[in-house]
Design brief:
The chain is an alpha/beta fold. It is about 50% helix and about 10% strand.
Length: about 350
């Protein structure tokens, strides 16, 4: 590492001596400026990411980190009124793609859904991986996302929603493998995307991170964020574990149900698409169908908190029972095939 270490990096490395030390927005802006100018060394980038991932910063520092990135992001130029973004932090026990299934179900039930996501970190298949297997495209701009919403009530965003500074920071550590260094970035990732929706539902695998994520959401996200966690450590609502929904105000109670994590395990690679479509159609195990229904109902309620759980659950169930959810997924797949053929 160079002798002249950036003040942010130094402050993070010195937290052992001063655990209460905070890094403000101006400091973070200075670091991003240095990164963009090529003035941040690989050693500094490694030290920064490693420090953040091994010892989480104070909520105020994390909030300043996120706010500085949001302030540097280009304005989206459009808005997605009434839409909900559903996304998880990843981590925890491996399950099939519950949040992606819930996105299709909620959209089929009439709630516009924009889903941001990523490739797999700890699960068998992340949302990007599943969408690729389904043949469902991700949007490449906010305008294209708005078009997709207008056309079908659902859109899956690509990486363009995330801060370019984070991609540059990860590139700065190469050729070292970034995986072990980006835990903090991945944790905050769902709250760093610029997705101009009306509300967001974010699954959190690590309940101990809820205070930090709430501070970040309140500081950097302009719309309401529901943070969903449970005692089983999954980044989605389960019904059969002690679920909590942190809205930033009074907690939201969650309906109870029976089931186990064993019934939510990912399937072998060759069965991925068939299994996913079966769950959307209500033909999966009762636990799998019930968990997707519950998470879709949470999306419906986030869009309109006045909607009671029974009505939201009934809407999600009808979307699955009637074939509307699996039909929507099939049309999105057909749309991709047509677009490729025309291209």
């Amino acid at each position: 590492m160079s002798a002249a270490v950036h003040p942010v990096v130094r402050a993070l490395l010195d937290r052992g001596a001063d655990p209460g030390a905070e890094v403000g927005r101006a400091d973070w802006h200075s670091l991003w400026d240095a990164l963009g100018a090529g003035a941040l060394t690989r050693g500094e980038a490694v030290a920064l990411l490693a420090s953040l991932s091994t010892l989480r910063p104070a909520p105020a520092t994390a909030a300043a980190f996120a706010r500085s990135l949001v302030e540097r992001a280009p304005a989206p130029g459009v808005a997605f009124p009434g839409a909900v973004n559903v996304v998880g932090t990843g981590g925890g026990p491996r399950t099939f793609n519950v949040s992606t299934a819930a996105a299709f179900v909620a959209a089929a039930a009439g709630t516009p859904v924009v889903k941001s996501g990523s490739r797999s970190r700890t699960s068998a298949h992340g949302s990007y991986d599943l969408l690729d297997r389904l043949g469902v495209p991700r949007t490449r701009s906010h305008a294209a996302t708005a078009d997709a919403l207008d056309r079908s009530g659902i859109a899956f965003t690509g990486d363009f929603v995330y801060p370019v500074e984070l991609a540059a920071l990860v590139r700065a550590v190469l050729p070292l493998p970034p995986g072990p260094l980006v835990g903090f970035v991945n944790l905050l990732g769902p709250l760093l995307g610029v997705v101009p929706v009306a509300a967001q539902v974010t699954g959190v695998a690590d309940r101990s991170a809820l205070p930090l994520l709430r501070a970040v959401a309140d500081a950097a996200v302009p719309h309401p964020v529901w943070l969903c966690a449970n005692t089983a450590g999954a980044d989605e609502l389960l019904g059969f574990a002690d679920d909590t929904i942190d809205t930033g105000g009074p907690p939201v109670s969650v309906p109870r149900a029976s089931g186990s994590l064993a019934q939510l395990r990912p399937v072998p690679d060759g069965e991925l698409v068939e299994h996913f479509l079966d769950v959307l159609a209500g033909r999966g195990t009762p636990t799998a169908v019930g968990v997707v229904r519950l998470n879709a109902a949470a999306v419906i309620r986030a869009a309109d908190p006045a909607t009671p759980w029974p009505a939201a659950l009934a809407g999600a169930e009808e979307a699955m029972r009637s074939g509307a959810a699996v039909g929507l997924a099939q049309r999105e797949r057909t749309g991709r095939a047509v677009a490729v053929a025309r291209g």
